[in-house]
Amino acid sequence: MDLLEKIMAAGIVGCGGAGFPTHAKLNCTVEYLIVNAAECEPLLRTDRYLMLNRAPEIVSAMELVAETVKARKLYIALKETYTDEIASLNAAIAAKNSRVEIFPLKNFYPAGDEQIMVLEVTGRTVPPSGIPLDVGAVVSNTATMCGIYDASRDIPFTDKYLTVTGAVAHPTIVKAPLGTPFRECIEQAGGALTGDYHILAGGPLMGKLYRKEDLDQYYVTKTTSGIVVVPDEAKLVEMRQTPLHTILRRAKSACIQCQTCTGMCPRYLSGHPLAPHKIMRKLAYAGDVKEILEDADVREAMTCSECGVCEAYACPMGLAPRQVNVFVKKALRESGFRYRKEMEKPFRKREEREYRRIPSYRIAARLGVEKYYHYTIRDLCEMQPEEVHISLQQHIGAPSVAVVSAGDLVEKGDRIGAIPEKSLGANIHASIRGRVVSVDEHTVVIRRE
């Protein structure tokens, strides 16, 4: 098998985002191969652990991928403050006499956003609603590169490295078999330090927020980047819990049209026509959102990355332009609108962008999680759950189809979910040795034996 076939067989998907199947993403020819090692979200430390402990594998995987995609320029982009990680990578590069280069970034949010990273490294703006391939680049996460290295040696994707941090006794990196309960991951980090808390799956800006009472419903997937325990009194909990009708009422009544949400928007600064303040204004004058769905400015909401800068940092009135954009995007999709990217027109970053980068610590402080920002997390705990609940949809595309039945004995690494014929998808593998307890269209449950 060639590399793409091995990646598909191993079930590798993007570990840093929505989980796009990697064998499809790398089926291209590009000028730039960029490894995203900037860890976009404050608090997460997984990429740093991997760069310190698996640097040779990351560099080797880049060389393999570069040969496949014909890339001439190979960069690992990470924050310049990651001095130990840079030293580790440079040692691996030197040992292999590799053509991989380090690209240091300023410590700002959202440095790890895929489109922002492409702009930093190449100087090219990805068109609105476009992808890095549109400007000759492909981007993969650090953990994805580790998965590709394993796949090249016929090792399937069965375990996920992730950060467990926040209000826990011992913030740590865990290597968790897919399907491990969130609760066990938190227990592995010494348990929560507060009785009243919420859980973030991911980082504080773009992660999904869950109630403590619902904790037992959630399990590790291929795209789980972190589990953050957040006290209920943290500002970000209040922001996330505000009802939509309240958000819309505030948007209509309190927006002062200062334009700061637009002026600080990473997409706008990269050269996109997205202007959140215009969407807020037009929504204020509309009786119903359906009245403004034909408006060109409103339709730009479809290009919002939902990074949260506008509501967590920019707006002086405490409004939530991001949530307004999410609401408008949903209405646009329901109306049948599809954004068409412009490939003929070049987009260029705005000059003021250089002076409007937001320090990562400052945005963490605005969210009320700054006390967890400076944690150094170097320990790894390898988890051994007794039972795993493995989702058959851990990726973009069609859900996998179960190829096992209740009662089957499976070894770790056995395929339990297959890509549907002629579909975009990913294979799923058993993450522990054990007996299949149950199978439905969504989940395979395996108990250790």
Automatic annotation (TrEMBL):
Task: List residues of the Soluble ligand binding domain.
Answer: 162-207
One annotated GO molecular function? metal ion binding
Q: Which UniProt keywords apply?
A: 4Fe-4S, Electron transport, Iron, Iron-sulfur, Metal-binding, Repeat, Transport
Alphabetical GO CC annotations of the entry are: membrane
Domain RnfC Barrel sandwich hybrid positions: 384-445
Tree of life domain: Bacteria
Q: Which InterPro entries match?
A: 4Fe4S_Fe_S_CS, Helical_ferredxn, Ion_transpt_RnfC/RsxC, Nuo51_FMN-bd, Nuo51_FMN-bd_sf, PduS, RnfC_N, Soluble_ligand-bd
Sequence ranges assigned to domain NADH-ubiquinone oxidoreductase 51kDa subunit FMN-binding in this UniProt record? 8-149
PANTHER family per UniProt: ION-TRANSLOCATING OXIDOREDUCTASE COMPLEX SUBUNIT C (PTHR43034)
Write down what this protein is called: Na+-translocating ferredoxin:NAD+ oxidoreductase RNF, RnfC subunit
